[in-house]
Give the backbone structure.
Amino acid sequence: MSPDRKRLGAKGKNPSPVVHARPSREDAHQVVYFRRHPDDDSAASVPGRDILSGCPITVQAKFWARLVAVATAPPHKFAGGGYWEAMKGDMAGWFEVRVDGPGRHHYRLFCLLDNAAEGVERPLLVVVCGLDKPFRTTLSSAEYAGVRELGREYLKRNPRPLA
């Protein structure tokens, strides 16, 4: 018998890890999207969903898989491998989900963890907004300031404005 057959087991199958395709009630955090309040945005847009809808399908699928994995982990214990990162400096308190798309284009979702939201069953992993950028470029300080402003808008109301 080849070494591969021994490692895979008698039937030649890998044991399958449990993989979540969607959130579960047992997850440490609930994945939600921030919806802008009509007083701040008459369209009551959902910035995180807006960026996702403009991403290639493969990028959308990778984002969703990563969000589910992080919510299950829980987020503070998730070994993100560069895909889920706690941010530093002016963005301390924020988390970034990273996905590279076709042509090495970079897509980012900016998230907050919310343990103080009223009227929810468990802590929230909130997708606030997202940005994208070409390969080997950086986001500007103005773009990061815009992300932080949306975060302040989200946190100023409780119950939280969720989609």
Observations:
- The mean pLDDT is 87.
